[in-house]
Specification:
Oxidized Rhodanese, domain 1, alpha/beta, five-stranded parallel β-sheet, 5 helices, globular
């Protein structure tokens, strides 16, 4: 596992231990409306450049980004690191793997 990637089970463990981090969902609003992870914050990739200031309070804390399968969130994580966010990670497999391994009550699409 590269230093930018974190798996769903590790994210779940961090939730369960009440670890302080931001789970950032970079999917679009219609995807969020269909299914989302409780506790995540929606900031669509398409709006990220205009809204990155909303993340300023998290610049020095852990940010874990997820999308549907992990492709967009990897791009977002890399971009945020380029903007000086030092502790950003991509949740591999995205919400699709989360729905298979962590919360099977969530719908898949």
């Amino acid at each position: 596992m590269s230093s930018i990637e974190i798996d769903c089970r590790s994210v779940k463990t961090r939730f369960d231990s009440a670890d302080n981090f931001l789970l950032l969902d970079c999917r679009e609003q219609n995807e969020w409306d269909h299914v989302h992870i409780q506790g995540a914050v929606l900031l669509p990739m398409s709006e990220l450049q205009d809204r990155v200031g909303e993340l300023e309070d998290h610049r020095s804390s852990d940010v874990i980004v997820h999308c549907h399968h992990g492709g967009r969130s990897l791009q977002v994580a890399l971009w945020l690191r380029q903007q000086g966010f030092s502790s950003v990670f991509n949740m591999t497999g995205g919400i699709d793997v989360w729905a298979q391994e962590i919360d099977t009550s969530l719908p898949r699409y």
